Amino acid sequence: MLMLEFLSRRLAAALVTLVLATIVVFAVVEVLPGDPALVMLGTDARPDTLAALRAKYGFDQPLLTRYLQWIGGLLTFNLGNSHAYGTSVSKLIGDRLVVTLPLSALALGWAALVAIPLGVFAAWKHRRPGDWGVMGFTQIGISVPNFWFGIVLVLAFAVTWQWFPAGGFPGWQEPLKSVHALILPALSLSLGEIAILTRVTRSAMLDTLREDYVRTARAKGATERRVLFHHALRNALIPVTTVAGLIAGFLVAGAVIIESVFRLPGVGQLVYDSINNRDLIVIKNVVILFTILVLTVNLLVDLAYALLDPRPRIRA
Q: From CA 190, how far away is CA 181, in angstroms rounded?
């Protein structure tokens, strides 16, 4: 019962956030710039062309009507047609998500696979050369832009050694080739997140290793490996899980630059092209899609947090 109450409150908060996000996105994309048709076609467009575009996309209707029609389209997955591509926005986004979501999942998996062991190792070797080495690596990971790291990976592994393709995506008809094409972009996308997650894991492990129950386990003769992975790591994973959820949202949004570097036909590349083409219909729907994905990930993180630590269910 407490779990249902906890999740219902989190779901209500997410819905309120989503409604506020739709208002902000609608205002920024269609209200603040002025005439959306003029933004899309430019100041040199003829008056009859502008009038035709306003009528086609409903820009000549009152703001409240346009907003409610957009919300209705979101609820029914009828997002209208793209101005630049001349096709359904729903289909356009759906075709690109099959690239962006696997890319983000691969980057998140790689970040967790590398960062958690590194963080545990750094905590174990606290204030020793191993700890200093890991912290130096994380400092580099935070400082280096991921798009520059992507270019370095292309020069090394695609141009010099030719182990991976330099860009492009063959489609999921050939799964092995598709995963192969996503490896370098995923590595580039995850660099900063690996550094952040490593630091969070190290800090959480250090706090946990100072707890009384850890000292008790050591006093009873538990091996260091059992102390680290059985007693300390599970409790340390509570803050790590929260940060990993935030990172998952950043990975989806951060794919915009990486997909442009590797010429991947994902949602990030779609956003980049839509901005260049002034395709406001696509832009506002993709931004809301990013918002929904981040809120969904945060809900899943709240669920995982409640399972790992039952105390928030009581306090919520």
A: 15
- How far apart are alpha carbons 200 and 208 in whole angstroms? 12
Task: Quick: pLDDT tens for 226-256.
Answer: 888 777 887 888 888 888 877 887 787 777 7
Q: Which domains does the chain have, with CATH numbers?
A: 91-315 (1.10.3720.10)
Q: Which two three-digit tokens encode residue 80?
A: 């209208």
Q: Determine contact, residues 313/2, Cβ cutoff 8 Å.
A: yes
Mean pLDDT of 211-233: 79
**Residue closest to 274 by CA, chosen among 259, 286, 290:** 286
Angle of the 89-124 helix axis to the 175-209 helix axis, nearest 10: 40
Reported confidence tier of residue 310, pLDDT bands at 50, 70, 90: low
Please check whether residue 223 is in contact with residue 141, taking contact to mean a CB–CB distance below 8 angstroms: no
Q: Give the residue carrying structure tokens 């059992």.
A: 226
pTM to 2 decimal places: 0.81
Tens of pLDDT, residues 140-166? 888 888 888 989 999 999 888 989 988
C-beta separation of 236 from 140 below 8 A: no
Closest to 269 (Cα-Cα) out of 281, 277, 260, 278: 260
What is the 3-class SS of 59-118, one letter each residue? CCCCHHHHHHHHHHHHHHCCCCECCCCCCEHHHHHHHHHHHHHHHHHHHHHHHHHHHHHH
